[in-house]
């Protein structure tokens, strides 16, 4: 058994698609109409057959509440691994990404947190 798709709730699928592809550099894998919304998945350009990230509409009241609560508590909704966190931090800052935590050593890893503009805090980590 392996993880093939994981999801993140987003307030606006189109805005999220632009942010995750244009700012973060993910690649769109699937974009299929599903009723009022779309099944949009992204992959890392480094692992095009790897785990897909589904941009899940947060239309259900429980999803909205969950997203709102973890954001207000400063809890990242997702974690992405990077090879060089200081390089990624600088690159993302140059594209206008807003960080809520700059690269910070936390034991054996270094972490940073940014706002995805779609209702989530995202953590990047370098092991």
UniProtKB/TrEMBL annotation:
<dbReference type="Pfam" id="PF00903">
    <property type="entry name" value="Glyoxalase"/>
</dbReference>
<dbReference type="InterPro" id="IPR004360">
    <property type="entry name" value="Glyas_Fos-R_dOase_dom"/>
</dbReference>
<dbReference type="InterPro" id="IPR037523">
    <property type="entry name" value="VOC_core"/>
</dbReference>
<feature type="domain" description="VOC">
    <location>
        <begin position="1"/>
        <end position="127"/>
    </location>
</feature>
<dbReference type="InterPro" id="IPR029068">
    <property type="entry name" value="Glyas_Bleomycin-R_OHBP_Dase"/>
</dbReference>
<protein>
    <submittedName>
        <fullName>VOC family protein</fullName>
    </submittedName>
</protein>
């Amino acid at each position: 058994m392996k993880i093939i798709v994981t999801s993140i709730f987003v307030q606006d699928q189109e805005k999220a698609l632009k942010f995750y592809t244009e700012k973060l550099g993910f690649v769109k894998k699937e974009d299929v109409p599903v009723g009022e919304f779309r099944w949009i998945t992204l992959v890392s350009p480094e692992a095009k057959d790897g785990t897909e990230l589904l941009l899940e509409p947060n239309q259900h009241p429980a999803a909205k509440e969950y997203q709102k609560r973890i954001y207000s508590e400063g809890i990242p909704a997702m974690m992405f691994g990077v090879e060089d966190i200081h390089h990624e931090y600088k690159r993302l800052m140059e594209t206008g990404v807003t960080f809520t935590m700059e690269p910070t050593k936390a034991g054996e890893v270094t972490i940073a947190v940014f706002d995805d503009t779609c209702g989530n805090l995202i953590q990047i980590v370098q092991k």
